[in-house]
Q: What sequence folds into this?
């Protein structure tokens, strides 16, 4: 018998994973046999694709073989980085997330990794498992707050950090160009009981000394399997709201930054006479808060309240906030009195996580609801239940004062919702670059916005344009969806806040044909 053609597989071995393509169509032979991976799914600090399904008209950007190729590429990158080839995997609650994770696991095993599968999880549970199991790497299958039809993976190889642009760029190169390193020795270890270990850890130092009635809103996402029990273990009286698991998300997408969920949370507080409502997104790494009057407090101002509270206990502490956050951090008298330092940095959970670690900060806060607590409160990653615990402890340390009372102590600033007009991934960064250039030129020429001079254009993450009265506008590119992100804040009043958007930012962006419909407006 001859040796066979040069490219024939060796006995006992299969062929190498095919190089992914970007042009495959569903309901074809090739779609079932070749990986589909669109380049746009590799974002700044995680991966996010439209996976779709038969009920959706939009074409998929990823298939199951593409997910397997992603796992093989991730395993290849981990070995290239010189990190021990051991990884934690978990998945959020979507109809397809378990299948996505299984396809990812096949790729990781093909790369010779030891995979520790913790089952249904929140992102912070997967991060916790890295510490609990002493495993260096993580791959959490989640679309986070994205609508059904989306999927993605949050990844890291250096706890508590997750990948940033450098790692994601290299992963993209490996996967799209088929630079895979297949290795023997892959092993799957199923880990039971991580939910219980996580809840015990996140509640071990939280024992409330007074009755606090808490509405727990989960939007039917995975947090419903974790948050109610954790809050009760902290000593709270818990009223459950949409905590049953339902991957159809029958009321709304679980995102405590969206107006619809916040309104429902406020109504529940008033209906039950609760002290607070805490809401959780689909993978439990973001926390939204509504006060005793049923009014939402955006996460940047919750962060300011927490920074004020913690700075009394930890003098000269450093806090990190993202560029979407209120300007009140700069002027707050309590922070100044306690010697606190505040650092504004790029929006994005990986950016703030990394910056918080680099500066040895006590905590980091994002307006989106990601909050990062380091020792003695947390491990440094974003965890909505750790954030909720910090808010409850703050209330516990202020007997006789409600959350709305504490909020009233803050300076006056009127901050908008986060608004996101559609903009294709291939076009959004160029548009933001042009917006930065336009604002910089306007500032240099002495131009004004609504009668106020521009005193600063911060380009660290889009354009944060600060006016002479402290008001500001922000335009940046979303890191995980085909959208831009717009936030405005006025130091004058609600009408001025609306004018900053309607008379300044919206008309400016309307000049670009690629900027489309907003998800919500003020």
A:
């Amino acid at each position: 018998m001859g040796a066979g053609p040069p490219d024939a597989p060796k006995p006992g071995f299969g062929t190498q994973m095919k190089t992914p393509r970007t042009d495959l169509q569903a309901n074809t032979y090739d779609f079932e046999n070749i990986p589909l991976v669109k380049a746009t799914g590799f974002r700044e600090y995680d991966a996010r694709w439209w996976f779709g399904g038969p009920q959706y008209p939009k074409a998929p950007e990823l298939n199951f073989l593409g997910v397997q190729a992603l796992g093989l590429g991730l395993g290849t990158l981990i070995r290239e980085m010189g990190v021990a080839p051991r990884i934690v995997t978990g998945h959020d609650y979507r109809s397809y997330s378990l299948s996505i994770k299984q396809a990812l696991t096949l790729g990781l095993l093909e790369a010779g990794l030891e995979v520790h599968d913790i089952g249904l999880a929140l992102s912070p549970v997967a991060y916790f498992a890295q510490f609990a199991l002493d495993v260096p790497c993580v791959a959490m299958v989640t679309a986070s707050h994205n609508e059904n039809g989306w999927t993605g993976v949050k990844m890291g190889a250096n706890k508590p950090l997750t990948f940033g642009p450098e790692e994601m760029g290299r992963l993209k190169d490996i996967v799209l160009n088929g630079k895979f390193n297949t290795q023997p020795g892959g092993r799957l270890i199923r880990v039971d009981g991580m939910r219980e270990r996580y809840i015990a850890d996140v509640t071990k130092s939280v024992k409330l000394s007074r009755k606090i009635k808490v509405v727990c809103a989960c939007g039917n996402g995975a947090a419903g399997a974790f948050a109610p029990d954790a809050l009760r273990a902290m000593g709270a009286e818990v009223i459950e709201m949409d905590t049953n698991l339902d991957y159809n998300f029958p009321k709304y997408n679980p995102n405590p930054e969206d107006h619809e969920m916040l309104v429902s949370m406020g109504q529940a507080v008033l209906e039950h006479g609760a002290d607070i409502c805490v809401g959780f997104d689909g993978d439990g790494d973001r926390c939204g808060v509504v006060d005793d009057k049923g009014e939402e407090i955006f996460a940047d101002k919750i962060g300011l309240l927490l920074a004020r509270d913690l700075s009394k206990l930890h003098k000269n502490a450093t806090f990190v906030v993202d560029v979407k956050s209120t300007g009140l951090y700069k002027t707050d008298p309590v922070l100044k009195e306690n010697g606190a330092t505040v650092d504004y940095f790029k929006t994005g959970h990986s950016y703030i996580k990394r910056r918080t670690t680099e500066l040895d900060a006590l905590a980091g806060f994002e307006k989106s609801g990601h909050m990062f607590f380091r020792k003695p409160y947390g491990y440094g990653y974003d965890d909505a239940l750790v954030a909720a615990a910090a808010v409850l402890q703050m209330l516990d340390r202020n007997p006789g004062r409600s959350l709305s009372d504490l909020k009233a102590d803050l300076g006056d600033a009127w901050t908008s919702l986060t608004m996101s007009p559609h903009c294709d991934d291939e076009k959004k960064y160029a548009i933001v670059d042009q917006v930065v250039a336009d604002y910089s030129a306007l500032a240099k020429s002495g131009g004004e916005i609504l009668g106020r001079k521009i005193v600063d254009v911060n380009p660290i993450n889009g354009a944060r344009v600060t006016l002479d009265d402290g008001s500001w506008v922000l335009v940046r590119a979303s890191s995980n969806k085909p959208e831009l992100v717009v936030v405005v804040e006025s130091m004058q009043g609600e009408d001025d806040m609306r004018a900053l958007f309607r008379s300044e930012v919206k008309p400016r962006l309307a000049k670009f044909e690629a900027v489309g419909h907003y998800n919500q407006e003020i």
In short: The first helix runs from residue 64 to 80. The CA atoms of residues 373 and 379 lie 7 Å apart.
